[in-house]
Amino acid sequence: MELHCWVEEFPGSITVCDPAGIILEMNARAAETFAKDGGKALVGTSLLDCHPEPARSKLLHMLETRQAHTYTIEKNGVKKLIHQAPWYENGEYCGFVELSIVIPLELPHFVRGG
Asked: Which of 10, 27, 30, 69 lies 20 to 30 A from 2 at CA?
């Protein structure tokens, strides 16, 4: 797959895998985030190998059921929003996209009417 230029310089990590969990693409931020694990050399490897239990089982379940998963994490004082969602091409399931975006530790929440 060919990355679009905006994806490569997007200020968040973008990782794309196929239905079996094989990494197809990583943008520059994702490669930087996972540099200690191999960075761009991870393309072509399995996400399952990068996840210990219980995350591995959760990932397998997501790949099988095609259900999105969203959560936040905090590590070393940095909070991130993680959104993992299935992607499709011409209506055919093609795997998952993971977006990881740094967010403020305290984040306002707004409820807006219709």
From this structure: 69
Pick the CATH number of 5-103 from 3.30.450.20, 3.40.50.300, 2.70.50.60, 3.40.50.880: 3.30.450.20
Q: Domain locations in the chain?
A: 5-103
Contacts of 46 by beta carbon, 8 Å cutoff, 6+ apart: 20, 21, 22, 23
The model carries a pTM of 0.89
The DSSP symbol for 36 reads: G
CB-neighbour burial class of residue 89 (10 A; exposed 0-12, middle 13-18, buried 19+): exposed
Nearest to 17 by CA among 99, 103, 91: 99
In this predicted model, what pLDDT tens digit does every residue of 22-55 receive, in sequence order?
999 999 999 999 999 999 999 999 999 988 999 9
Neighbouring CB atoms inside 10 A of 101's CB total 16
CB neighbour class for 50 (10 Å; exposed up to 12, middle 13-18, buried from 19)? middle
